[in-house]
Amino acid sequence: MNSPKKDGDDDVPVKDPVKYGELVILGYNGSLPTGDRGRRKSRFALYRRAKANGVKPSAVHILNTPQDTKAVHSRGQHSISFTLSRNQTVVVEYCHDNSTDMFQIGRSTESPIDFVVTDTSGGGKEGEDPSIAPSTISRFACRVVCERNPPYTARIYAAGFDSSKNIFLGEKATKWKNPDGHMDGLTTNGVLVMHPEGFPEDPKQGLWREISVCGDVYALRETRSGPTRGKLAEGESSALRDGSLVDLCGATLLWRTGEGLMRAPTLRHLEALRQELNASRPQCPVGLSTLAFPSLPRSHRWEPNLEERQPWVYLTCGHVHGRHNWGQRPEGVEMPGEGEVSTTRRECPLCRTVGPYVALWLGCEPAVYVDAGAPTHAFVPCGHVCSERTARYWAETPLPHGTHAFRPVCPFCSSALSTPGWTRLIFQGPID
């Protein structure tokens, strides 16, 4: 987290570098299941580089033969190619921009990608290279360009430059010429962005929009990969705000600014809240055993020897218990891992309410919290625990799903939420 450099890159940030912000993949609760390694991790910090690597449009070439295209690309400059027909291609060359830094995000593990994004829908097998695993995330999905001087504005653009420094929009890609004459286009599955208002103090969801290759903002297409672009969103910008969401069709990223992160809770603060909750010695009203949340961070999977005092909850009523067999058929107790949804329905021994019964897990990705409040609420149906304001915000924030649907999900595990999506936890104190 102390460097934005790529593997083997010499672009090491200077002492006390400016931090533009962080991109956090929703659904991993602090780290990838197999661990954060190199450029493949659950979050990526963007620092001002030792040397600017931004680019900006320069010359435009209208080419009529493949030989002309090869000649332009052989110059070694960044470029975007718009194929209009077999006989005509428009190539926009880009030159160096010493006022910006560029960071590229995508599924590919090739060197131009700074942040390798793993598909949260589980595309591919465990341990499989995400650059070759089945996925709807583009290999070169998008790029973020940050101004090197205050206010360090970060802007999002669809598509990233490949190893040949080219972005290629083929004949079937959605593309057009704007009234001012410059070419633009959309990627196959699109890059969607939502800018909230007032995040995190009084957050209100914005509208989901699509970002073009040149950074313009459009209303959504009829379907995710539809052939016709939406209407231009007049006056709207691709500049990221604190709390902006970027959806890559397979993973949703949360942008937190450097300033916003300074006000956000830290993992140390969340650990202090955990210890404070455990110090209150909540008890299971059936077994009268003392419950305790496991330390942070911890495994993503169920560990029976370490989780004997794990709190469990009846999601319909919110009563917290220890793990027990009350109301369960005698053949055993279902023990889902973190983020796995239990299908078991039981009767709460306190209020007789019937509903899902799941283990509680503390949400330990600080970036998704909208305040530093106590862990009093749990998402339904996964059981991840956070503050009330955080639970309410994410339960009211629909994220893209499929080709044209939206649904709220738990930011810690990406489980689809029910309605209202959260429950207030009711703890039983110790009996003196």
Features:
Pellino_RING, 432 residues, Pellino, Pellino_FHA, 7-stranded antiparallel sheet, phosphoprotein, 27 strands, disordered N terminus, 2 domains, Pellino_fam, mainly beta, 4 helices
Care to describe what's here?
The protein has 432 residues and is mostly beta strands. It folds into two domains: 19-263, no CATH class; 267-424, no CATH class. It contains four helices and 27 strands. A seven-stranded antiparallel β-sheet has the order 2-1-17-16-13-14-15. Strands 3-5-4-10 form a four-stranded mixed β-sheet. A hairpin with a 3-residue loop joins strand 25 and strand 26 (405-408). InterPro entries: Pellino_fam (IPR006800), Pellino_FHA (IPR048334), Pellino_RING (IPR048335).
Q: Largest beta sheet: what is the strand line-up?
A: 2-1-17-16-13-14-15
- How big is the Rg? 24 Å
Shape: elongated
Mean pLDDT: 87
Specify the number of helices: 4
The main β sheet shows up as:
7 strands, antiparallel
Task: Compute the number of structural domains.
Answer: 2
What's the total count of β strands?
Answer: 27
Strand content: 25-35%
Short description:
This protein has 432 residues and is mostly beta strands. The chain has helices spanning 66-73, 258-263, 267-279, 388-395, and strands spanning 19-25, 43-47, 54-63, 78-85, 88-97, 100-106, 115-116, 142-147, 154-158, 166-169, 175-177, 183-185, 191-194, 208-211, 217-218, 245-247, 252-257, 312-314, 320-321, 345-347, 354-359, 361-362, 377-379, 384-386, 398-401, 405-408, 422-424. Pfam families: Pellino_FHA (PF04710), Pellino_RING (PF20723).
